[in-house]
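Hi P.,

Sorry for the delay on this. The queue was packed all week, but I finally got your sequence through. Input first:
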Amino acid sequence: IYRKKFTLPKAIHDGPKEPVFLRVARHEGNILIDLCDESWQVVEVSATGWRVLPRSPVAFIRTASMQALPMPVAPGRGSMQPLWALLNVTPNQRPLVVGALISGFHPEGPFYVLNLVGEQGTAKSSATRMMRRILDPNTVDLCSPPQKPDDLVAQAVNNRCVVFDNLSGLPPWLADSICRLSTGGGFSGRQLYTNAGEFSVALKRPVIINGIDDVASRPDLAERTLQIELQPIPDNRR
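Then the structure:
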């Protein structure tokens, strides 16, 4: 009875500690990407290539809404062309999209704020959803902007990629928070069930936003933003 009662608290307080990661981690100079599949496989990316590991050498956490990434295809067999057939971006902006997607798998960042701008009918939400599913597929790919800082912290803690859909404007506190998310910063909030307790967390996340108007107009946010302008889609391409 004594061992059953006290073993778990002893392990929590006196056991060895190790960092945990969400979706992407650095390990021995390489990058590990959690596929979030049922077998808990990870992709190890090195300077010379990549391989699939049946067991991760680091600890990953998974939230209930995270979904699996597809298994990578063999070198030389992959292509970006199927994406360009669906994604409404001009050929001149395709390298920018690829750069933003690759940077989203960097283990530490800093990251771009990818801003998709276009008039009604330019498939902003569809483009955002596709990019989100490449980086961090989730049961809820598109989210409304948070109404208060605590909501933003909760979303950033539980998602590798933070996405805000169909923005019509950004209040100053949210624009400043997106800046801190992309390049790194501390966030604090009230602890649950307490009035005076506070928790703090350091976060850095890829961010994708979209809207009809350019909402990244504040200078500090604009310099972190990679803006992609989507074109109207003719009826024969719909």
